């Protein structure tokens, strides 16, 4: 009788042990599934946060680029500080000297032949009538007198030589050491390092004031 009871107790103990093991396995599996779901939730949240940050950066960067472009356009639209302007300038071709109301001239009747202005630097004075025709094509004319420093003249010549639709020559009749002239616009400065020199060139070389944009700056008068 005792032996039978012992055998039954052993069987029950084995069943209980197996049950405990199965339950433990189920608990581990459930815990692993919960941990996996938690990782998936964290990964989704991190992905959303990263995507939002990237999108915000792209949007912010896009607005920055738009604002920068707008600022540049506004700067180009604004006049250069200290410049003089003239409007309603005549544009007839004439074969005679023209009495211009400003020195150097900033527009008006002019020669049928333009002065070459593809970064041309002239060491001697040129005819006003030819230079005015160049400005009609969108060129900026840089002139200087004997009050300009030699270093400034050299630096300006280097700048002009690298800039299409510009030309440079001495003009002993002008008041300012250095003058930059475009069609209808003129700026006087004392030094080439003046930041307005670059502003004037950037604004008026083939600028909105050009009566004949894209017209040639080569094939004209070369001396």
Describe the 3D structure.
With 223 residues, the chain is an alpha/beta fold. It has two domains: 1-78; 84-204, Glutaredoxin. Helix content is 48%, strand content 12%. It is built from four helices and six strands. The chain has a six-stranded mixed beta sheet, sandwiched between helices. The radius of gyration is 40 Å and the shape is rod-shaped. The termini are far apart.
Number of domains: 2
What order do the SSEs take from the amino end to the carboxyl end, as H and E? HEEHEHEEEH
Tell me the CATH topology of the largest domain: Glutaredoxin
Helix content: 40-55%
Question: What composes the largest sheet?
Answer: 6 strands, mixed
Structural class: alpha/beta
Distance between the ends = 136 Å
Radius of gyration based on Cα positions:
40 Å
* CATH architecture designation of the largest domain: 3-Layer(aba) Sandwich
| Strand tally | 6
Number of helices: 4
**DSSP strand (E) fraction?**
5-15%
Strand order of the largest sheet: 1-6-5-3-4-2
List low-confidence stretches: 68-72
Briefly, what CATH class of the largest domain?
Alpha Beta
Q: What would the average pLDDT be, to the nearest integer?
A: 85
Give the overall shape: rod-shaped
């Amino acid at each position: 009788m005792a032996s039978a009871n012992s055998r039954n107790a052993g069987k029950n103990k084995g069943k209980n042990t197996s049950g405990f093991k199965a339950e433990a396995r189920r608990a581990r599996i459930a815990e692993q599934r919960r941990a996996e779901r938690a990782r998936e939730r964290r990964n989704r949240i991190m992905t959303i946060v990263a995507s939002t940050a990237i999108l915000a950066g792209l949007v912010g960067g896009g607005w920055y680029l738009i604002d920068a472009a707008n600022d540049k356009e506004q700067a180009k639209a604004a006049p250069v500080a200290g410049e003089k302007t003239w409007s309603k300038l005549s544009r007839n071709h004439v074969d005679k000297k023209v009495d211009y109301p400003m020195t150097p001239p900033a527009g008006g009747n002019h020669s049928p032949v333009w002065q070459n202005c593809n970064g041309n630097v002239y060491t001697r004075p040129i005819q006003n009538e030819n230079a005015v025709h160049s400005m009609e094509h969108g060129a900026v004319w840089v002139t200087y007198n004997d009050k300009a420093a030699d270093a400034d003249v050299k630096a300006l010549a280097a700048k002009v030589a690298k800039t299409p639709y510009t030309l440079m020559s001495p003009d002993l009749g002008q008041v300012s050491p250095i003058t930059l002239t475009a069609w209808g616009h003129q700026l006087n400065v004392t030094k080439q390092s003046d930041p307005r020199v670059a502003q004037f060139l950037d604004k008026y070389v083939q600028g909105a004031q050009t009566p004949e944009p894209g017209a040639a700056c080569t094939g004209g008068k070369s001396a």
